[in-house]
Each structure stands twice: as structure tokens, then as C-alpha cells.
Amino acid sequence: MHNSYFYKMSQKPFKFKQFSIDQDRCAMKIGTDGVLLGAWSSLEHQPNSILDIGSGTGLIALMLAQRSDAELIDALEIEENAYEQAVENFEKSDWGDRLFCYHAGFDEFVEEMQDEEEYDLIISNPPFYSEDYKTGNENRDKARFADSLPLTELIEGASLLLSKKGHFDIIIPFTEEQNALEIAADHMLFPLKITRVKGTEDSPIKRSLISFGFQNTAPEIDELILEISRHNYTEEFKALVKDFYLKL
Hints:
This protein has one domain: Rossmann fold, CATH 3.40.50. The strands form three sheets. It has an eight-stranded mixed sheet with strand order 5-4-3-6-7-9-8-10. The chain has nine helices and twelve strands. By secondary structure, it is of the alpha/beta class. The protein has helices at residues 2-11, 32-40, 59-67, 80-91, 106-113, 138-144, 151-161, 177-186, 235-241, and strands at residues 14-15, 20-21, 49-53, 72-76, 99-102, 119-124, 162-173, 190-198, 205-213, 220-225, 227-229, 232-233. Helix 4 (80-91) links the parallel strand 4 (72-76) and strand 5. The protein is globular.
């Protein structure tokens, strides 16, 4: 009974303050990771062009459309159902004229675009990399895992598409942070900011939000705690996502 209730809930549109997202055909449902990344990513340099890699429902691209005046917001999604859903979510939003979704693999997209387009902001809530996460659901696994888009390929491709002063922002498991920093350094990308995310003050660090750029400077490092207790959110988390969640 409880399982079917939650399943039905996830089929409903997810309503944010300025847009809503249908996710019934998308293997990767909306989660905190995507919302965190879309809200955390810095728009201080007012990017004119943005690329969201592995867009899923289109959540992060829509968040950045709400937050910025970027004229070009491209999204990339390989899984067909998710791609179609992202297109629909873009079209029904207020920013459909600035949003475009490509149905392609990242490797072919990089090959096609590296001489054509540079992006001021590249952003990705990428697959997790551990085999332990295999679910048996093919669409979900394709959306989620290393054999779909390895971290090395993601970082290398981003380095080829990023403008000189642009930044590349990702959220990954904290266990992958050091690996990501080493791969990025091989492609002349360096951390500008790292935010390590914990569920509560006493819980272990779960995620790393990292913003990479070509400037090799000492990174700004901080920590974000999401909850004081169950559904009792910290002021920092509420301030970060208040423009999106209806209940905050």
C-alpha cells in the first residue's frame, strides 16, 4: 500500500514556484541533488550561454532560466523518454524560447560542438559511479551510471566546451571528490569553490558541489547542512532554495 502510494505521488507534476515539471516518463525523478546544484551554481559573471549535461526532466536548465538572463540554455539528454519529457517541460515554461534540448550522447555532442559553441556555464548532476547503485530498471540505470557517462568523459568534454572564463559545476558523491579534482587537473580545470553537503550536523558528508574553471587559484571551501531534524531545514538550506520550493 505505502509503496504504491509513493509511486503514484511521483507520477504527479512537481510544482515549483515559477514552473512545474512532469516526470512520469523520466527514470530519474526530481531529487534534492538537482535542486541544490541549480540553486548553488554561481551566476555572478552573468553567463550568456549555459549547457546542462544529462538533463533528465530539464529541472536544472529550468532553474537557471528562472535565475538568469542567459540567451542560450542548451540541455543534453540521451534517454528518449526523459528527452521528450524535458522538451515538454521546456515548452510549457515561461522560458521556452531560451531553452533547447538535444537528444544525443555526450561524446557525439562534444565532437559536433567543440568547434562551434563555447558555454559560459556547463552544469551537470551526473550519474553516480558505483556498481552498487544498479537497480535492475534499465532506464533508471542508463540515466544513472558510469557505463552511461564516466566522470573522466564528462570532465574532459566539459573542458573542450567551456569558455575561457566560464565555469563547470557538478554535484557528486563526496567519495568521488578527490578523483574528480585529479581528473580535472589533467584537463587544466581547477576548483574555484567546493561546498560539502551533510544531511544533519552529525551525519557524514554525502555530496560535493564543485565549481571548476581554468583559473588555478585557492578554492573557496565551505559546508552546507540541510536539516536540523527531519523536515526541519537549516536557514542556510532554506535561503538557498527559497525561490523554488513552494513550502519554503
